[in-house]
Specification:
globular; two-stranded antiparallel ribbon; 32% helix; 5-stranded parallel β-sheet; alpha/beta; 246 residues
């Protein structure tokens, strides 16, 4: 059995060693720290966040969505909140990516940098599909290689950062980023064909689903569309094997 100090980054271990238990935040606490994180004023290269947050501390930054038909909602965004106090920015392969420390971001920076090269290598064209895009980690590195990027991510808080990350990654306004704050299944059912009609067929697609794998509708749609280049990434070999078999 390995100790937690053997697994955590040096920055997290330093924070734990320098911060007595009684002075740490109460309840569930999330820490993201690494040498690639932009340092705070105190010099700590990380962000510490409490899970609980008062409503007054949050700031609404996106709204929208419309109701179509009886009791049916087709949303691109249904509203989200963000708090800059929990914004964490990391430097990856000479690009800055930001995310909310309370959400998900790959914590193994070395593996992520290697993965970026493998996933993005050779991709270019007119229209890119980034399914389960998260905070736009891959799209940020492809924004200057495609005319239009379509990002699909059900976590609307993450999608806010994705739009910002893609815009910041471009040396000039090159790519158009279309973002859909819905599940992959809902995007396939309600938005996919409209996206193709408006911006043309997809030249490439990146699929990076959660451990549960692709939604059934997404996998079936990808099989039908025969997108020339499909890069599929997963953190669960079992669901990856299931989806790739399809």
């Amino acid at each position: 059995t390995r100790r937690s100090s053997d697994l955590a980054t040096a920055e997290i271990n330093a924070y734990l060693a320098a911060t007595p238990q009684q002075t740490r935040p109460r309840g569930r606490v999330q820490i993201f720290a690494d040498s690639r994180v932009q340092a705070t004023e105190a010099g700590f290269r990380g962000i510490v966040a409490e899970q609980a947050e008062s409503a007054t501390a949050a700031k609404s930054i996106i709204g929208g969505g419309k109701r179509t038909g009886k009791n049916k909602v087709k949303k691109r965004f249904a509203g989200t909140v963000a708090n800059d106090a929990y914004r964490c920015t990391v430097q990856l392969c000479n690009k800055a990516l930001s995310f909310d420390v309370r959400g998900f971001f790959q914590s193994n920076m070395q593996v992520l940098e290697e993965t970026l090269g493998l996933v993005c290598d050779g991709l270019q064209g007119e229209h890119l599909l980034d399914l389960y895009s998260g905070v736009g980690t891959f799209s940020a590195f492809l924004a200057e290689r495609f005319k239009t990027l379509t990002l699909v991510e059900h976590n609307r808080d993450a999608l806010v950062f994705a739009v910002q990350n893609v815009a910041q990654a471009q040396a000039s306004p090159i790519a158009r980023a279309e973002s859909y704050g819905v599940s992959g299944a809902n995007w396939v059912l309600h938005h996919a064909e409209d996206s193709i009609k408006q911006y043309g067929a997809f030249d490439a697609a990146i699929v990076d689903p959660p451990r549960s794998g692709m939604e059934r509708e997404v996998c079936a749609w990808l099989c039908r569309k025969h997108i020339p280049t499909l890069r599929s990434l997963s953190c669960d070999p079992a669901t990856q094997a299931r989806d790739v078999a399809e």
